[in-house]
Design brief:
The protein folds into two domains: 3-107, Beta-Lactamase (2-Layer Sandwich); 114-323, Rossmann fold. The protein is 41% helix and 24% strand. It has helices at 3-19, 52-62, 65-74, 114-117, 122-127, 144-158, 193-200, 216-227, 243-250, 254-267, 296-303, 310-316, 325-334, 340-346, 350-360, and strands spanning 24-28, 34-37, 40-43, 76-82, 88-96, 99-107, 132-137, 162-167, 180-185, 207-210, 231-236, 268-278, 285-293. Strands 9-8-10-11-7-12-13 form a seven-stranded mixed sheet, with helices on both faces. It is globular, with a radius of gyration of 21 Å.
Length: 362
């Protein structure tokens, strides 16, 4: 069978995925496709079982020769993909138990406003920063990419500047609006994140989006770029706004940690942590955001290795945009967007959540 046949089979799966409102699809040898719908994984037994030859045919049809070679040697390969009508997806082909498998994430390239995504108003102020490092953190599937795309789109619509994104793969395609936007894909346009950041210093960017900080070299380059007058957005896989600082510093060798801590104290502007919670009415999922806005007091605490006190600043500094997870959960419960029971499951600080809810309901 030719590549067109397997590509069409894959596109049919994508169409089924979108028709059912799935955010993700998983495929592996001799099982039915599995869709993630409103956060729940559901086997699609109305679709054909994926056979070994079918998965291999799909990989060969969708990947370039270089990508297929990478899959064969490195045992996994990421790529961005547009279907026949221009809808965007993020694909990962990989091996498991000796057979091919894939994971697909649907990407809605129609940029939504913060209000449409139900994101907190503080993100507008964060998008308006002129320089420094902004970290958007959360587990896989927490909507980080969508939130970042909305922030970049807002800058694109409102500021005449040069935006450079470095991604693996490119997820959301940003056309030029008021800004000039260039998007580089690791493996396609540049060899590595660190290489892309280093060369970016000669490409006159005002704003940089770094898809993920995966290694020390990339982290160091991102922090340095933020120090030198650029606004840098980056993601990390953590679910605690305060803990991300110590985790980031702790990933560096001991002899560099003080220097990195000093750099972060001067360059970090905000940390936004996001989780997606099933809505109370069952219609979808609602973002819940913990937000740390870095001011002089927080900078000093970072510099003095006193991260434990940062949470106190967050709890008492809501007027400056700070928001603990407990307060964010209480806000969603008060507005009847998520259930009280679900919020209780998501917090390790039940007393603070209960107190925040009492204050909000006065």
């Amino acid at each position: 069978m030719n590549s067109h046949f397997y590509k069409q089979q894959f596109e049919d799966l994508l169409a089924s995925m979108l028709a059912l409102g799935a955010s993700d699809m998983h495929g592996s040898v001799d099982v039915y496709p599995v869709f993630r719908i409103q956060g729940e994984l559901l086997e699609q037994n109305q679709l054909p079982v994926l056979e070994r030859g079918t998965l291999k045919g799909m990989a060969e049809a969708l990947l370039s020769a270089e990508q297929f070679e990478h899959l064969t040697t490195q045992r996994s390969c990421d790529l961005g993909y547009s279907n026949g009508v221009g809808e965007r997806f993020r694909l990962n082909f990989y091996f498991e138990r000796g057979g091919l498998a894939f994971a697909v994430r649907a990407l809605n390239n129609a940029f939504c406003t913060f209000e449409e995504l139900r994101l907190p108003a503080q993100l507008e102020a964060i998008a308006g920063q002129k320089d420094g490092l902004v970290l958007v953190t959360g587990t896989t599937g927490s909507g980080k990419s969508t939130t970042l795309a909305s922030m970049i789109n807002k800058i694109n619509e409102e500021r005449a500047c040069h935006i450079l994104t470095i991604e693996d793969p490119i997820e959301f395609v940003h056309p030029n609006k008021r800004s000039v936007v260039h998007q580089r894909e690791v493996g396609e346009d540049v060899l590595s994140f660190a290489d892309a950041i280093r060369s970016a210093m000669r490409e006159d960017p005002d704003v940089m989006l770094l898809g993920e900080m995966r290694d020390l070299e990339t982290m160091h380059a991102a922090i340095t770029a933020a120090e030198t007058g650029h606004l840098v957005f980056a993601t990390l896989h953590t679910n605690d706004a305060v803990g991300v600082i110590d985790r980031l510093v702790g990933m560096f060798p001991g002899n560099l940690q003080n220097t990195v801590r000093q750099q972060l104290s001067m360059s970090l502007r905000a940390v936004v942590t996001q989780i997606l919670v099933p809505s109370a009415d069952g219609s979808g999922r609602v973002p819940v955001n913990e937000i740390l806005m870095v001011n002089g007091a927080v900078s000093n605490l970072i510099r003095e290795k006193n991260s434990a006190q940062i949470r106190s600043v967050m709890e008492t500094g809501r007027s400056q945009g700070n928001q603990t997870l407990e307060y964010a959960l209480a806000l969603r419960v008060k507005d009847k967007l998520i259930t009280y029971e679900k919020a209780l499951q998501l917090t390790y600080r039940k007393e603070q959540f209960e107190n925040a809810l009492k204050v909000l309901n006065r």
